[in-house]
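PROTEIN DESIGN WORKSHEET
SECTION A - STRUCTURE
LENGTH: 238
TOKENS:
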């Protein structure tokens, strides 16, 4: 069985379409979406509707929470607090009440067993939508933050930096970001798991898409933080 995990779309509809096309070509049987669907991107409504049209399990990310209730002080650095709330207002103006209710209702995590492999998936950590777990975190601290439920594979998004680690016989995966890569690779990223009778193979897939099209859309828009989006798409860095 093949299962794909995608996350951190951030309103990048063009990147999402490319990833879904790649997933279809690989004949993936199960799809999971780990949050951050439409905040901080140029096409929030289209991205949200495309996610809703999929046969997929979807959970909430911190940016989905922000769209619903705004960004609180101390959740982001003071220097970007104002502009990020302006971005949130821009996004919210393009959604309707049904969209907001959908985002508010999403669960915070999911657990699934596929071909005897138990997978625990969440956006940031199982207990917190906002906590950062970096790729180089010591094993014991990563276990404390991520392995709160017994599983074979732990998979999450949030940090936009893809990696695979093995800790005490368990697999920890960050799937990167579909729409806003922070790892220096200017492609959409997702995780592919292939399972067969308790065996599991993990891959990070990087998908090229038409970034120039998205850059032109940003340039022609009235998005309140164009420079940030353009910089990330051109460099793969925040």
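SECTION B - SEQUENCE
RESIDUE ASSIGNMENT:
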């Amino acid at each position: 069985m093949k299962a794909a995990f995608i996350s951190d779309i951030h309103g990048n509809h063009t990147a999402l379409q490319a990833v879904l096309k790649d997933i279809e070509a690989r004949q993936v049987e199960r799809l999971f979406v780990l949050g951050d669907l439409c905040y901080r991107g140029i096409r929030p409504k289209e991205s949200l509707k495309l996610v809703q049209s999929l046969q997929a399990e979807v959970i909430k990310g911190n940016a989905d929470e922000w769209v619903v209730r705004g960004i609180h002080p101390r959740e982001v650095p003071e220097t970007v607090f104002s502009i990020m709330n302006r971005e949130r207002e821009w996004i919210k103006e393009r959604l309707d009440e049904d969209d907001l209710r959908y985002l508010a209702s999403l669960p915070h995590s999911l657990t699934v067993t596929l071909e005897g492999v138990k997978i625990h998936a969440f956006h940031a950590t199982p207990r917190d939508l906002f906590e950062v777990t970096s790729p180089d975190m010591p094993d014991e601290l990563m276990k404390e933050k991520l392995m709160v439920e017994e599983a074979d594979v732990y998979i999450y998004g949030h940090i936009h930096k893809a990696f695979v680690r093995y800790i005490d016989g368990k697999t920890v995966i960050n799937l990167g970001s579909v729409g806003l890569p922070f790892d220096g690779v200017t492609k959409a990223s997702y995780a592919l798991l292939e399972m067969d009778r308790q065996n599991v193979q993990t891959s990070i897939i990087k998908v090229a898409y038409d970034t120039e099209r998205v850059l032109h859309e940003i340039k022609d828009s009235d998005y309140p933080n164009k420079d940030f989006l353009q910089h990330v798409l051109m460099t793969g860095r925040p």
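SECTION C - NOTES
The chain has eight helices and ten strands.
The two ends are 35 Å apart (CA to CA).
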